[in-house]
Amino acid sequence: MPALSKVTITANVFHVMASHAASTEKEEIIGVLLGNWQEKNTSNPFSRDQAVAVVEAVCILTRSDKRKDRVEISPLQLHLAVVEAEKVEKELGRKICVVGWPSSYHCVSVSYRHVLNVRTQLSQQLMDERFFGLIVSCFDADADHTQRLQITCFQSNDDPERGPVQLKIPLQILPDLSMEKHTTQSIIDISQKIYEEQVKEFSLSSQRVQYQGKSEGTEENAMIVDTNPSNGEQSLPQKLSELYNSGVYGQSITSLVDKLIIPATELAKQRHAMNLLEIKRLESLRDARSRDENSFEHIV
Asked: Domain JAB1/MPN/MOV34 metalloenzyme spans what residues (predicted)?
């Protein structure tokens, strides 16, 4: 199988990944990169053929576990990513498959103690040697407090002495003046997926758990989930818990609207205004060319 030599992504794909990474400050994000492989055969018999990964879309996934240093997804999300790849393939009219995965790391730099999930990446390469990962690092806490966003493309190499080590892959970002339908949908999916995660967390936290201390008995009797109290009344701790959970949920939704949805809406408005100006410019050029052609015909 050809070895991966370079990865190319469009500016729209980079925008989606950067927006997704910046949507949360204290938790990692994860998704799936959709694209295709372009193989380059070499005439050197002692050198392996090269492959270039062309990323054309990003699939946003719902996280089942999200923390500062880890993120997990369910097998169902992987199935939905394959379904999304088939939709993008029909839209673009060319073969699209899963080629890599994006993630993020917050509050520390990308190179800090090599936290690029090299073991996870190595396990993914067992299925396809060309599979790669993209890490977007933002909210870096450097000594000079420099605000920056760093993106790193990598694979893993199994070193017999040191174990899995990081292997950096050249990354190229290509300009993209048009915005495909799947790109617009990915931007919308960022806020939609985060909202679904917040609703799920609030629903789980709303389950009232009543602990009963028992000196004897099994551990199964030590915790009883009481979703419908028999007396119809809630205790003061339960009321305080629900009030606190509702406040945290409301704060999360407000932050989602303020930091993600409103900026995305403003960006869409600005892009729409730019498109209208471009349409007017092209129409004026068309009218001017038509007048020049008519004048030339009269002269002839």
From this structure: 4-121
Q: How many domains does the chain have?
A: 2
**Alpha helix segments (H runs only) across 22-149:** 75-92, 118-125
Question: What gap in Å lies between CA 269 and CA 142, rounded to an integer?
Answer: 34
Indicate whether 137 and 26 sit together in one domain.
Answer: yes
pTM for this prediction: 0.75
d(CA 147, CA 293): 54
DSSP per position, 161-197: TTEEEEEE--EEEE---S--HHHHHHHHHHHHHHHHH
144 secondary structure, DSSP code: T
**136 vs 154: CA distance, rounded Å:** 11
Query: Does residue 241 form part of some domain?
Result: yes
Tens of pLDDT, residue by residue over 21-45, are: 888 877 888 889 999 998 877 766 6
